[in-house]
Amino acid sequence: MTGGAPGGMAQWVDLHAHSTASDGTLSPAAMVGAAHRAGLTALALTDHDSIDGIAEAESAGRALGVEIITGVELSAYEGSREIHILGLHLSDLAELERHLTALRSSRRTRAERIVERLASLGAGVSLDRVLEIAGPGAIGRPHIAQALVEGGHVKDRREAFDRFLGAGRPAFFAKQRLTIAEAVRIIHQAGGLAILAHPGPHGTRDRVHQFILAGGDGIEVRHPGHSAEDTVRLKALVDHYRLVPSGGSDCHGSMEGPRALGGMQVPFDWLQQQATRVRERAEKGMVA
Ligand code: AMP
Ligand code: FE
Ligand code: FE
Ligand code: ZN
């Protein structure tokens, strides 16, 4: 595969990454620095329920010559199943910001419930410590997992999810329920593209149909959670339904391992296809 850059040199982008604006461990500027060192030409910052890292990322990106794509990762529900949807190329931010503020406040309420439940399970952590770990960013289960590790209740994050925080575990609570169509509408109203995040082995034709019917624009084809077969199958669905392809590392700050920034080698051409789709939507005056 080539990045399609003139002169034959591959150009890679990364269209899925988290910073301290949600549950990543590096600041937005540090993520852009890492993107630059990894040789990426563009980086989408896609924090959970937050675009608060974008301004800092853009200013670092200007200094280093890395294009920053304004993005976000939303959680939607279909029954009890949680689906992640990336909003990429967001441009109309005021109304979006109102939605995100509400979603973050519901994350705060949920964290309080989780902390209460943990206490009743004999794995008490302090809410203040959880808030401190989360900092100014959107609070997520990874922050609570860290507090559980610090408190000596579990040996690592994985055990925190396996015993307490994961779906179906005793301290699990779902987030505020957006439907798939609602999440897509919020992204479209903000001028962005809605991309089905890491559909993996569940990215069946039916689920993709459902996402298209809800107005979805594209699928995350390349993701560290996907097998080689997933990637081939998802790319075929993208081609068949004329969706836009996307991909990224889902890096949360570690520059080693499967989620290292840039590790997915997403071609620049995919970003160009997305930019074209954004323009087409705008020309057609499509808002939903
Ligand atoms: P939340 O947004 O609060 O629902 O937390 C979801 C985040 O927790 C994901 O984006 C991952 O960063 C992390 N996560 C989810 N499941 C696990 C797991 N089993 N082990 C470690 N981290 C996880
Ligand atoms: Fe996360
Ligand atoms: Fe996700
Ligand atoms: Zn993510």
Provide key terms for this protein.
288 residues; disordered N terminus; DNA polymerase, domain 1; binds adenosine monophosphate; single chain; 15% strand; binds fe (iii) ion; globular; alpha/beta; eight-stranded mixed β-sheet; TIM Barrel; binds zinc ion
Set out the fold topology.
Elements: E1 12-14, H1 28-37, E2 40-45, H2 54-64, E3 67-78, E4 81-88, H3 93-120, H4 127-134, H5 141-150, H6 157-165, H7 180-189, E5 193-196, H8 205-213, E6 218-222, H9 228-241, E7 244-247, E8 266-267, H10 268-283
Parallel strand pairs: 1-2, 2-3, 5-6, 6-7
Antiparallel strand pairs: 1-8, 3-4, 4-5
Bound molecules: adenosine monophosphate, fe (iii) ion (FE) (2 copies) and zinc ion.
Could you walk me through the main structural features you see in this protein, from its secondary elements to its overall organization?
Helix 1 runs parallel beside helix 2, helix 4 crosses helix 5 and helix 5 packs across helix 6. With 288 residues, the chain is an alpha/beta fold. It starts with 11 loop residues before the first strand and ends in a 5-residue tail after the last helix. It has an eight-stranded mixed β-sheet. The protein folds into two domains: 195 residues, Metal-dependent hydrolases (TIM Barrel), CATH 3.20.20; 57 residues, DNA polymerase, domain 1, CATH 1.10.150. The protein is globular. It is 43% helix and 15% strand. The N terminus is likely disordered. The chain contains ten helices and eight strands. Bound molecules: adenosine monophosphate, fe (iii) ion (FE) (2 copies) and zinc ion. Adenosine monophosphate (AMP) binds next to helix 5 and helix 6.
